[in-house]
Amino acid sequence: MRIAVIGAGGVGGYFGGKLAQAGNDVTFVARGRHLDTMRSAGLRIESAQGSFTISPARAVERIEDVGPVDIAMLSVKLWDVEATAPTLAPLVGNGGVVIPFQNGVEAPEILKRALGNEHVLGGVAYIAATIKAPGVIAHTGSMARLVVGAFDAALASRAAAFAEACNAVGFPCEHTRDIDGALWTKYVFLTALSGCTSLARQPVGGIRGDADLRATFEASMRETVAVGRARGVEFADGFVEKQLAFLDTLPAEMRSSMQNDLAAGNRLEAPWLAGGVARMARESGLAAPVNATIYAALKPYINGTPK
User: Collapsing DSSP states into helix, strand and coil, what is residue 237?
Assistant: First the structure.
């Protein structure tokens, strides 16, 4: 399978690296010292599940240097999706598809507007991984799985083929018939997790161990569920309670990626997480005061910590 990985960070670097290790034709699009190191020394994946190096790693700086592919895995940050979307047309023009693996739920619609419905699948990534150093991806914990699906039943076979390729590599990839549900399931939990840990500057243990913060976490999830239902997404009875139970299983020291970005003074994805819930709530005539407040408090930092 010919695959392009657009954005070779934690998600794209790890899963793209695993696919390349198994013999798939993978081209990474990266930049700066990360790109230079991948070209000179390869791509190193460090993981308790097994470390390895892809050398040589096929890596380019420009998307137009990739050529047609079967699958384009889009793992750039949320703020880059709008500008990147139209540049992917040459990659998928011969029947290929793009699978976005961003946080949030809005990337697929952005891609559909730019490329057409027939070139877009949906994807969800569950992993804790980051660029440890140029050319090195560090995977922490044991969680590393994908969920993919088609918005149009006519593309279901493309999603199934990608899932089969991933499972053959050795990491789980679920092919779902309800990709909207999968996207919103992650969105509900991640929005609450990123918002509460960042706002309180506390890890998971500090959130779930404090009655007020736990209540804030739950209220954020309930607001997001209400927005999802207003947009036609179905949630099972007891969904929020199940997510709270999952919160209790996570390591107490775990921090969200947005909390880490905040601590490092980096740009934040808050406009598409808590801010996205608040915006979509207004569009649906709903109130989302908890998420709106979280977003307002983080807003001064969304472009990086003011110097």
Answer: coil
Give the residue carrying structure tokens 């998971």.
204
- pTM value is 0.92
Count of Cβ atoms closer than 10 Å to residue 142 Cβ: 11
CA distance 305 to 180: 33
- Name the strand (E) or helix (H) holding 14: helix 10-21
Please write the tens of the pLDDT for every residue from 176-212.
999 999 999 999 999 999 999 999 999 999 999 999 9
Tell me the three state secondary structure of residue 158: helix
- Cα–Cα dist 208/170, whole Å: 33
The tokens for 85 are: 């979307």
What phi, psi does 184 have (nearest 5°)?
-75, -30
Residue 44 to residue 56: CA distance in whole angstroms: 11
Q: Which two tokens stand for residue 199?
A: 């706002």
- Interatomic CA distance for residues 38 and 128, integer angstroms: 21
In the chain, the domains with their CATH numbers are 2-177 (3.40.50.720), 181-301 (1.10.1040.10)
User: How far is Cα 248 from Cα 37, in angstroms, rounded to an integer?
Assistant: 39
Query: CA 24 → CA 2, 86, 182, distances in Å?
Result: 6, 25, 26
pLDDT of 257 reads 87
How many Å is the maximal CA-CA distance in the chain?
54
Mean of all residue pLDDT scores within the chain:
95
DSSP H or E stretch at residue 139: strand 136-150
Alpha-carbon span 101 to 121, nearest angstrom:
10
Residue 13 pLDDT exceeds 80: yes
